[in-house]
User: Fold Signal recognition particle protein from Tenuibacillus multivorans.
Amino acid sequence: MAFEGLADRLQGTIKKITGKGKVSEQDVKEMTREVRLALLEADVNFKVVKDLIKRIKERAIGQDVLEGLNPGQQVIKVVKEELTDLMGGEQSKIAVANKPPTVIMMVGLQGAGKTTTTGKLANNLRKNYNRNPMLVAADVYRPAAINQLETLGKQLDMPVFSQGTDANPVDIAKQAIEQAKEDHRDYVIIDTAGRLHVDEGLMDELQQIKDTVNPDEIFLVVDAMTGQDAVNVAESFDDQLDISGVVLTKLDGDTRGGAALSIKAVTGKPIKFAGMGEKLDQLEAFHPDRMASRILG
Ligand code: GDP
Assistant:
């Protein structure tokens, strides 16, 4: 489960400080040292950890905290607030276009979970927001990707717009939106091609689709288990495409949490959803405060 390692690692430290009637500056320093080591072990970006610890120290050593009631608990509260802020603070909402359909472009590297997440997101929008999405198969390089999306569409009983592997992805995306308008579909979710690595050809194609369909959201799908690699991938995609948010998949298998804790601070873009398993109903809105609670127990 997400953050398991971090939570286990910090349990002792949290107990120690919350149990104290009085907390000294030295106690705070010791605790932040532990938090720092735990975060680095969890593969959180080095600079992110450094800045975070500085903020925690500044706030926790403040008079109000150390001289207040339950100083130990207050110190932990500061840590929790800072972790929440680090992950984006408020839970961020999904866009709604003034004039339907709302267009969402799904981008990411192969294997990150993009196609699965396209299906999960459609399911989530229908279940929680009563929307009727249409899926678009714009990954024309891998016939398997088109089949996979069509299978998901069948499972969900949702239309999948596809023109096989011969058509141009930009045209597919454009025509899909026309079709969605005719069929009164209020969300169009475009599953674009992925590659094994970030490369120019991929970015050019995504940029062309972006320029043509003018999406309301560009969601980058990254695999949480790849840790700092996921953060680097997010930086590259954001530099090229100016993404609007991140979907972090496979958080169910990520005991460390380095990507979850670093992405917002490094890219400035929020994590909007988290994949918590392979099934279509295992996509959750990402709540920074709940994630921070998971870490601190
Ligand atoms: P794509 O190449 O990016 O389109 O990746 P796929 O959608 O084909 O997913 C790759 C693999 O990751 C599949 O086996 C999915 O079932 C799996 N997967 C996707 N999201 C999650 C998740 O949140 N948790 C787990 N455990 N597996 C996931």
